[in-house]
Amino acid sequence: MSSAPKAAAFTALHAKGDPLVLVNIWDAGSARCVADAGAKALATGSWSVAAAQGYADGEQLPLDLLAMIIDRITATTNLPLSVDLEGGYGVSPETVAATLRRLLPLGIAGINFEDGIVGGTGLHPLNAHCKRIAALRAEADAFGVPLFINARTDLFLQAPADEHTRLIAAALERAAAYAEAGASGFFAPGLADRDLIARLCTEVALPVNIMMTRATPDLPTLRALGVARASFGPGPYRDMQTYLTDAARRHL
């Protein structure tokens, strides 16, 4: 399947109240494992991909190496693949568009794109980040792929849980602006309060993605709240690290 049909199929998997479950992968081997388990689609997690290659998160993994890993994943499975693009390996709209241009020929169906300042603190100003999203959309359109751009806000990751209620208005503002700029979905990692999740799902036009953690409601609850996508971030890789370390200790 070429990348355009894969992207369309990936988009169709996002349904409010019937969340697409993505067990995040980090290489071709983990992709094959998750595909064999019956996954409908695949998604990388930047932390996991970087850690598996001995790098820290935060765009420390060289873009050429990321492209090589993505190429091996898409060669290993025909499932739609979403790539965690972090902040696009740059700040300007032109730079993030060039980053996407490097990956589109590899057959990707979607990306995660975050508004947090990589290597710094805080978020990109709203208008500036919308221009970045618009540049990604224009690049994908020029390539002929209806790419699923999952616009991630780091509002909730960068603040303690007792401040999340105060931040919900800003999240709603960003979600609306990101949708207008060309985003396909809205990702709110770090948000775990069920009432706030329900409000996002009710008031945001885009499909809402929640990251699964120990604090997050379980999948049946998220389904009832209207979540359209549930992903696991670095959790699966950390679980594998623990398993391998424990297994090694038993044999060493």
From TrEMBL:
It comes from the Bacteria. CDD domains: ICL_PEPM. InterPro entries: ICL/PEPM, Pyrv/PenolPyrv_kinase-like_dom, Pyrv_kinase-like_dom_sf. GO terms for molecular function: catalytic activity. This is Phosphonomutase. It comes from Elstera cyanobacteriorum.
